[in-house]
Amino acid sequence: MASFDYFLKTIKKNGVENISDDVLKELQRIFDEFGAVPTKIISKQILLGIPDIYKRFVECRNKLKSKDSTSYIACIMRYGEHHGEIIYRQRCKDSAITLENLQNKYGIHQGEKKWNDMLAKKSFSLAGFILRHGEIDGPIKYKDFWDNTNFSTSKDAFIRRHGEIDGIERYKKFVAKQGFNNTLLAYHEKYGVDLGNILYNERLAKKNANSKKVKYVTKLLESGKTINEINVLLDKRYNKTSLNSFIKRYGLDIGTAKYTEFISKLKSNNVLCIEYYRKRGISDTTSFELISDIQGKRNCKSNFSKESMKYLLPIVLKIEEVTENNCFYGEDEFFIRTNKEEFDVSGKRIFFYDFVFPKLNLIFEYHGVRFHADVDYSLTHSLNLAEFKLNFDSDLFKKYVAENRGFDVKIIRSWNLKEDMNALYDYLRDRGIVLCQSLFV
């Protein structure tokens, strides 16, 4: 059986250097009655100067279901209201399953993977069902869940609840009601055209007149202020996070200091700012890559040119069939992350591309008249970063970035469609990808 001296030695190992005579008597009493009990809680009580350690120990033993409880009540009983509140909140924060905690525990990449896996396991997505139930039962349970879920306001959900005929009718009424009551048409139906117009316009006028901002702007306009002057005044009055707002509230020196602190805090908690990673001791090079990855995932586009799909998608699908290589496009649009030097020139962390065959090192880009200038794309083979700094062109640089990574970039211009499509046909044929020429309009 452990001795009292060993019990004290264990407490001192937890950082307790000096123990008063009164506390020593309480510890002796605890040891005599309960033996060698866990010492971490007792050590923390001594360090915080919590009184009545013996009494608190007995109360916790008698009232708590678990002697190791970390509940709010347990913390208050052990450490008092002030310290107990702080300790409980800190424990909740430390034990919470957050992205930051997982990254601190497992590293940036592994922590993010565990976080995403956890979200998938909890989600009602197909991926979540497969993770929970396997590849065979997962899709079946996923379909069964959504087929029988009635909290949705979709057309299918109405049909599930009320049957096909009644469900469709109820769904139509539901959709018709959404946002209809305050429309001009609703006023016409309720009051007639003439009275409806009057009452509708009165409602709008009353709504606008009640706006403090509208009243303020009206007053400024009447005083002869210009639009630019009004915008400056609005920013000062309504933007509570601007430098002017901080200075107005706290004075020049304190306001500037508080504003700087506010911006610094924002950046240090923003995963798209370098300060977030510096605060966590991560190198700028690694930080830059992580920021680029996050931006790529967030900005991956789902909107693409209908013309590009019309002219290039049939060719893309045929190439996939002939070569057995997948192409990335549309919602799965491919992007390339720029390095630090390329970012310094372009100001862009990523470039998206319309149709990409990664294994073939092949990219198709469709350029319409509206967003793309007629430039000489052959220049990218001869230009370098220094020359781009002097005369930057986004389309040329985008092509340069891809070519710098070994891709062949073929650009189809809407104003030069026939010539570019013929050139694409010849290029593919030279690479051994022979397709029907009728695909190349």
Describe the structure in your own words.
- The protein has about 450 residues and is mainly alpha-helical.
- The protein folds into four domains: about 5-95, no CATH class; about 120-200, no CATH class; about 210-270, no CATH class; about 300-440, no CATH class.
- Helix content is about 65%, strand content about 5%.
- Helix 6 crosses helix 7, helix 11 (about 185-190) packs across helix 12 (about 195-210) and helix 15 (about 245-250) crosses helix 16.
- The termini are far apart.
- Mean pLDDT is about 75; it is low at about 300-305.
Show the helix and strand layout.
Layout: H1 4-13, H2 21-34, H3 40-48, H4 53-63, H5 72-95, H6 99-106, H7 108-122, H8 126-147, H9 155-162, H10 164-177, H11 184-191, H12 193-209, H13 212-222, H14 227-238, H15 243-250, H16 252-268, H17 274-278, H18 284-299, H19 306-323, E1 334-337, H20 340-346, E2 350-353, E3 355-357, E4 362-367, H21 385-390, H22 394-403, E5 408-413, H23 417-430
Parallel strand pairs: 4-5
Antiparallel strand pairs: 1-2, 3-4
Helix pairs in contact: 6-7, 7-8, 9-10, 11-12, 15-16
In total, the number of domains comes to 4
Strand content: 5-15%
User: Fraction of residues in helices?
Assistant: 55-70%
Distance between the termini: 91 Å
Q: How would a crystallographer describe the biggest sheet?
A: 3 strands, mixed
Structural class category? mainly alpha
Calculate the mean pLDDT score and round it: 76
Q: For this entry, what is the oligomeric state of its chains?
A: single chain
